[in-house]
Amino acid sequence: MSKSMMTVQRHILEQERAHPQATGDLTGLLWDLTIAAKVISHQVNRGGLADIVGETGEANVTGDLVRRLDWIAQDTIYRAMDHGGHLCVMVSEESPDIIPIPAKFPKGPYVLLYDPLDGSSNIEANVSIGTIFSVHRRISSSGDGTLGDCLRRGSEQIAAGYFLYGSSTMIVYTTGQGVYGFTLEPSIGEFILSHERILTPPKGKYYSINEGNVAAWDEPTRRYIEYLKQKDAATGRPYSLRYIGSLVADFHRTLLYGGVFLYPADCSNPQEPKPKLRLLYEVAPMAFIMDQAGGAATTGMQNVLDVQPISLHDRVPVVMGSTQDVRVYEKFCADSNRDPANPTRFK
Ligand code: P6P
Which pLDDT does position 315 carry in this prediction? Predict the structure, then answer.
């Protein structure tokens, strides 16, 4: 099929055919997700007109104010995914505990973890926001999915992706065979292949971080950002700052243009670092995508994909983007942790 007519449904089907043991459940799961995204895209695009922006007055499990669109997105995904028979359990940023599949519906081999509408605090400013998703294969044998099915390393992901609700609506996804982007053609309601085999440049010229938090950064991050502000040997120019405060938008730019996105922990109290972004349904799926695009994602001391979650809403510090830029950050971290009295040891 020519690129101009390659729909995401056809692409997912062809990706599945590369797995002889595939049962069609992953294809069905991803198809159902694209339907939910079309509904959410319509709601987000109508935003202020439909009086569905603004806050519900409630806070979610992670303390973020829930906005009406957050709730609409959560409900839309749940109702699209609960009956297809592809999942045994779900996890959402908007729900404190695992979300079981209703008893009346069949259970499937996969686990879906998602942030239904990330960055929604930006919606009134018409800034791009998104849905982030991660898919694992269940490890429990049958019946209802368990917490153990959900607390999994990012390296075990079967698929990951995001929907970007911006000037156009896109899906960017991977099933471990590269990263592909599709743009919604509203006139026919289909996601059409627009970015074949996305590869992140090995080195970039942008950095993306909330400089307002500089007083809370740890020493390696402070020194690294100062380093990026010096003239780069290759370009003779410092890196440029790009930051919009919406993870999917900041990540998508980093994925395509290269450079580095950083959300380090708040180290105001060095004994109790406080990261912000959630591991299971924000950082791990983005790290899988970045890895598949030839980039890298680190906590500063280890590959994000190797982090073992302890609870559903764990948070981690993250630096991800062009491999060369991420490796330089890791070096700043390693050097800063050397005990000057004994360089072979770490504090
Ligand atoms: P800050 C949005 O609320 C979000 O969770 C991510 O989308 C975004 O990357 C981050 O928070 C922005 O946080 O502290 O810079 O406003």
Answer: 96
Atom of ligand 1 nearest to the CA of 245: 12
117: annotated active-site residue: yes
Residue intervals of the chain classified under CATH 3.30.540.10 are 3-195
Nearest CA to ligand 1 atom 4: 119
The structure's pTM equals 0.93
> Distance from the CA of 277 to the center of ligand 1, in angstroms?
8
Catalytic: 118? Answer: yes
Task: Identify the residues whose C-beta falls under 6 Å from ligand 1.
Answer: 118-119, 121, 210, 245-247, 250
Domain boundaries for CATH 3.40.190.80 within the chain:
206-346
Check if 112 is active-site: no
Strand ordering across the sheet containing 87-92: 99-100, 87-92, 110-118, 129-137, 159-165, 169-174, 179-185, 190-195
Query: What six digits make up the tokens of 66?
Result: 């829930």
Question: Measuring CA to CA, which residue among 263, 272, 303, 296 is closest to residue 155?
Answer: 303
Task: List pLDDT tens digits, range 137-176.
Answer: 999 999 999 999 999 999 999 999 999 999 999 999 999 9
Per-residue pLDDT tens over the stretch 43-61: 988 866 655 565 665 666 6
Quick one: 3-195 is in which CATH superfamily? Fructose-1,6-Bisphosphatase, subunit A, domain 1 (3.30.540.10)
Q: How far is the CA of 276 from the centre of ligand 1 (A)?
A: 8
Task: Name the residue at shortest CA distance from atom 2 of ligand 1.
Answer: 119
* Residue nearest (by alpha carbon) to ligand 1 atom 16: 245
> pLDDT confidence of 344, banded at 50, 70, 90?
very low
Tell me how far the alpha carbon of residue 202 lies from the centroid of ligand 1, in angstroms.
Answer: 25
Provide the CATH topology of domain 206-346: D-Maltodextrin-Binding Protein; domain 2 (3.40.190)
For 139, 280, 287, 330, 337, the CA distances from 261, given in Å and listed in that order, are: 32, 18, 11, 13, 22
Question: Among the options 16, 32, 94, 149, which is catalytic?
Answer: 94
